[in-house]
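Hi V.,

Quick status before I head out on leave. The structure for the redesign project is tokenized and pasted below; the design run finished overnight.
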């Protein structure tokens, strides 16, 4: 059994006749390029000690109708929160792991589906198990707060959550 790798629905061919996929990863290089763009002029912008500048070093937004012009209006670029995303296929563990990194780029949230071996001495023999990140997990990638079952707020936020957002963090 060999997995078929597709990108945007199109099969990716390789030089190998037998293409044995073990891991697939997408990484964003946030060191180069800008993490923000201006909501008014659309230019990529970078933060300095004095404010936001575009690639020409201009603090004044060319789309500003004011006189003198006002500064750029920073908004984060889509997916600028993501360091990387990956799928790992582990035949020996009979497991598939999806990982998404948003904090320390050396780590990630991981979601693993695995099957308990058929011959395991367990009532769960042959069953599929899903392992997910959870609040207060040891060595957590980033703090999680449950908003509702299956939905978590990631990272620093009001703690405890505002009452209308908190499901049950007791
Ligand atoms: Zn601008």
């Amino acid at each position: 059994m060999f997995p078929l790798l597709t990108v945007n629905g199109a099969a990716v061919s390789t030089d190998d006749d037998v293409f044995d996929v073990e891991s697939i990863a997408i990484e964003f290089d946030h060191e180069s390029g800008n993490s923000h763009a201006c909501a008014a002029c659309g230019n990529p912008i970078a933060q300095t000690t004095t404010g936001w500048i575009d690639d020409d070093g201009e603090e004044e937004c060319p789309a500003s109708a004011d006189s003198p012009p006002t500064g750029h209006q920073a908004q984060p670029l889509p997916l600028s929160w993501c360091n990387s995303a990956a799928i790992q296929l582990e035949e020996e563990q009979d497991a598939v792991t999806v990982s998404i990194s948003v904090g320390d780029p050396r780590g990630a949230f991981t979601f693993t589906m695995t099957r308990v071996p058929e011959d395991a001495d367990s009532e769960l023999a042959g069953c599929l198990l899903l392992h997910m990140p959870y609040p207060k997990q040891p060595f957590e990638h980033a703090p999680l707060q449950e908003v509702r079952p299956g939905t978590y707020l990631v990272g620093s936020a009001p703690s405890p959550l505002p009452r209308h957002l908190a499901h049950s963090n007791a």
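Above is the designed sequence. The chain has a mean pLDDT of 87.

G. will cover questions while I'm gone.

Best,
W.
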